[in-house]
Amino acid sequence: xxxxxxxxxxxxxxxxxxxxxxxxxxGLSIAPGAxxxxxxxxxxxxxxxxxxxxxxxxxxxxxxxxxxxxxxKILRIYSPDMLHNSETFHQFLVEKLKIPYQxxx
Length: 105
Prior knowledge:
The protein has helices spanning 6-19, 48-58, 64-75, 82-95. The protein is mainly α. The protein has two domains: 1-40, no CATH class; 45-105, no CATH class.
């Protein structure tokens, strides 16, 4: 029996997500300086352009400025406690992000 390692867990998770229809992109192909870079540094955790596209796709019925407010609220999640950051982000996903906007009549 193979030992349980971080690498084995990662490989398993990637395979499960691929079977569910997710596209896998190796981290180095989107790393800073890569041809298809999606982050400015390795400290940048959130892929901002992907986040903006997802927010727009999932919230077509709200104005672009309200979509951007939601993106900015997510980007401002910051605490030295990573668990707190993850819990806050999860709460935004589950309970919906509250962004005030006026709907045009």
